[in-house]
């Protein structure tokens, strides 16, 4: 709609001149008025995440420079003292593994699945290098590789169950406890196998029996306890 600039009445956009005072109304295209429109409430933006990201980037760059200097100093000191690289290989490999953990902890990888798998691969590389530096693969394949791989797979499965089934409140605690028990059984099995023990299943059976009360409690909480009480307890303990 348009208005007559002389008498102020509202007229149709195609009325020229004004039907009341015969004043010639200039025709203005709507495209020309787009730039004149002012947003009443400008879009808000939170600068804090971007600011924290810049701060974390600077801290990580500083840590990376310090790690690089430390690695060079250890290599140099080891070579000067022994005419070859001996203890510095172990130290620098451990420092590199710690730097990779910092990389994940600083939020450069957003996917939890990639973080879990990346930490598992980092642990495998660290343990493989430590075993190789001893001169032979003695304990990596029978002990370290199955334990780290199993822990990584179990953690990925736990996170998948939490996300897919939308597990909340008490069930998160129960699922976490069962996951820790499964991890303990997995680790204990390979440790006992590596030590050539005969009773491999005794401790595992005892541990599995401990899961039965946890499963019963989870079923009671889910199907027996009233929803009002569950919500009250969840608010009380911030679950």
UniProtKB/TrEMBL annotation:
The keyword Glycoprotein does not apply. The chain crosses the membrane at residues 59-77, 89-108, 115-133, 139-161, 173-194, 200-225. It comes from the Bacteria. Keywords: Membrane, Transmembrane, Transmembrane helix. Signal peptide: none annotated. InterPro entries: DUF6320. The keyword Signal does not apply. This is Uncharacterized protein. It comes from Lentibacillus persicus.
């Amino acid at each position: 709609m348009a208005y007559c600039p002389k008498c102020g009445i509202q007229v149709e956009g195609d009325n020229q001149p004004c039907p009341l005072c015969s004043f010639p109304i200039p025709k203005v295209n709507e495209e020309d008025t787009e730039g004149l429109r002012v947003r009443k409430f400008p879009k808000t933006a939170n600068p804090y995440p971007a600011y924290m990201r810049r701060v974390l980037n600077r801290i990580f760059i500083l840590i990376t420079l310090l790690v690089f200097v430390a690695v060079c100093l250890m290599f140099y000191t080891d070579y000067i003292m022994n005419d070859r690289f001996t203890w510095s290989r172990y130290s620098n490999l451990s420092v590199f593994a710690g730097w990779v953990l910092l990389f994940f902890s600083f939020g450069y990888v957003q996917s939890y699945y990639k973080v879990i798998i990346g930490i598992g691969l980092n642990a495998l590389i660290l343990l493989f290098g430590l075993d190789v530096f001893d001169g032979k693969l003695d304990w990596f394949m029978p002990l370290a590789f199955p334990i780290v791989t199993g822990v990584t797979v179990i953690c990925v499965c736990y996170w998948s169950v939490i996300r897919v089934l939308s597990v909340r409140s008490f069930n998160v605690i129960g699922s976490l406890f069962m996951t820790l028990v499964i991890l303990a059984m997995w680790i204990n099995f390979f440790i006992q196998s590596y030590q050539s023990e005969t009773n491999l299943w005794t401790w595992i059976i005892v541990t599995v029996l401990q899961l039965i009360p946890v499963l019963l409690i989870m079923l009671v909480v889910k199907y027996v306890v009233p929803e009002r009480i569950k919500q009250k307890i969840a608010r009380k303990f911030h679950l």
